[in-house]
Amino acid sequence: MKFKNSKLFNLCKDNKFVLLSFFTSIAIFVLIMFCYKMIPFGDITILRMDLYHQYGPLFAEYYDRLVGSGGLIYSWQSGGGGSFLGNFFNYLSSPLSLLIVFFGHKNTPEAIAFLIMLKGALSSGTFTYYLKASDEFKKHNALSAGFGLLYAYSGYFVAYYWNLMWLDGMVLLPLIVLGIERIINGKSAKLYVASLTILMISSYYMAYMVCIFATLYALCYYFGKYSFGTKIKDVAPSEDKFTQIKNNLKTALLPRAAGKFILFSILSGGLAAVALLPTVYALSSCSATSGTFPTELSTYYKIFDFLANHLASLKPTIRSSGDDVLPNIFCGIGTVMLAILYLYTKSISLKEKLSKAVLLVLLYLSFNLNYLNYIWHGFHFPNDLPYRFSYAYSFVLLIVAFKALMKIREITGREILNIGIGVSIFIVLVQEIESKNVNENTIVISLVFAVIYTIVLYLLNNKKFQTSAVASLLFCCMFAEVAIADTNNFDIDQPKTSYTADYKNFRALKEKLDSVERTTHYRMELTDLRTRMDPCWYNYNGVSTFSSMAYEKAANLHYNLGMFGNYINSYTYNPQTPVYNAMFSLKYLVDNSNKITLNKNLYKATYKADKFTAYENLYYLPIAYCVNSDIEFWDASTSGNPFELQSNYFESATGVKDVFDDVPITDVVYSNLLDFGADYDTGLYNYFKEVDGEPASFTMTITPKKTENIYIYLKSDNVDEITVRNEAGDFTVTQNTDEEYVLDIGEHEAGEILYIDVPIESGDVGYVDVYLAGLNETNFKKGYEILNDNGAMEVASFTDTKINGTVTADEECILYTSINYDDSWTVFVDGKEAGINDIVKVGGALLAVKLAPGTHDITFKYNARGLVPGAIISVVSLLILVFIFVVMPKMSTKVKTKEEVVTDETTITENEETVSVEVKTE
Question: Is the pTM of this model over 0.90?
Answer without folding.
Answer: yes
